[in-house]
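How a chain folds remains the central question behind the approach discussed here. For one protein, we set the task of working out the structure tokens from the amino acid sequence alone. The sequence in question and its structure tokens are set out directly beneath this paragraph.

_____
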Amino acid sequence: MRNREEMIKFLTGVQSSKRNYYTELKKTVSELEKKNTQLEIINDVMRGFNVDMSMDDMLKNVFEKLQTIFSIDQISLSIVDGRSLVFSNMFPAPSEHFIALGAIPDENSLYWHVVRSGKPLFYRTSPLQTWNEDESLMQIGLTSLFLFPLVNKGKVCGLLALGSKTMEEHHPSDLSFFQQLSDQVAVCMENARLYNEVLDTKKHWEETFQAVSEGILTVGLHGNILQANQAAHQYFPDDKKLTGQLVDELLFSKLDNPFRISMRTKAPSSAVVHIHEKVCECHCYPVFDDVNHLYAGIIYIKDVTEKRKIEAQLIQSGKLAAIGEMAAGVAHELNNPLTAVMGNAQLLLRKLNLSDPQHKLLSDIYECGKRSKTIIRNLLTFSRQEEFPFDQCSVNDSVEQVLGLVGNQLRKQMIEIETELDESIPFIEGSSQQIGQIVLNLLLNAKDALEDSNKREKKIQLQTGTQNVNGRQTVFLSVTDNGTGMAETVIGDIFHPFYTTKNAVKGTGLGLSVSLGIAEAHGGTLKAESTLGKGSTFQLILPVPSDLV
């Protein structure tokens, strides 16, 4: 009896209460640990979707934590891509029996069924193979599957699948957690998609920005350079870093420049600037934000050096064509009466003795006719309507012939002539008469420069020789004087037709233009170097044919 009373007391008294208390406490702690683990899983999902962690790594982390509180043996992710459902990720890695990663066939698909319904589904695999996925699930030992559609903004964007090898349904609170997990996965996937889209757009913009072959600068309101593409750095090779520099100091020499005008007027502005001997077009554009506030400027730099050269050549060609047409017409009109004048003068000279007073008058008429013939020949040469046959000729011979004509005249004007002719220079293929015309023009220009000089010793030096230009042998003739010289800004214009540094009586501006044309017709060129107050040097360069080397 006593034992019975003690047993009843033990079961209903203080000892029983203690045991129930500890049991409930242990159960509560277990539930709290489970809730804590669930929160950790959701937190991992939130942190896991970024560029630094792959989807496989994220699934692995979630799977390992799920296994501590649930009987989960497989986790997989499928993504809706347009009209396709793509089986994209699985952990552990899929076996050969499971569905291959890639597009899931639409017909009789359990996965497609859940996506279309938009509702979670707990599914037990069936030997009757109700769905196409049944066979693959059973071969890897999965007896049940939890399928949760990933919904974002009311639209299914994927599917989260949790597979288990034990047939069990979870408590409603667990299903609520799985739903929260899938919702969080959907949100994070969308955030990751948007983030990657921004990254791709940024990368595409940067690649486009760097790919532009012209210089582009992004400039702040205060003129500091915020960004520069690779092409912009090529304009400033001495500056390793353009960002942070002031565009006013780097690009413009005036305070009232296109950038400042554009920022002030809030309208595009442009100007031509010179950057390290390059002629560049500089276009400035204001940049506005969404509320139409000006916050930056874009400067576009384009090298137009070659374009300007071509434009200058076209202008010069147009002038030459017009002048040539006029010169040719005048030359042909004068040639016929001049031939009659010279012919009749020769006939009359034959009938008169040298002592006859009229003989000298007729001789003057004949010589003036010859001089007029030479002028007409020059006009025809300029108009390119008279062709001289090319043959083997010597530059030295052309120099000596011209000196024979004008050498005495130069010496009478107290101009010293020094010659340094290389007798070993090879022949060239060309016209001796035309080469002589270049020599004559250069000598007459040197004479005019010396006449304007106040120097007591006036000197012209002529030198010939050979040199290699771009791997090809050439013959050169240099004519140097110690006359007045020219400013550096003038040298670029002296070969233009009608451009002259002389007064209207002495020069017409055609001599150097004609000479350059003859040199180029021979495959060569004519260069000039000059220092104001010290003198000038002109150098004729002509190629030597390979068979004459």
Residues 213-303 form a domain with the Beta-Lactamase fold (CATH 3.30.450.20). The chain is about 45% helix and 25% strand.
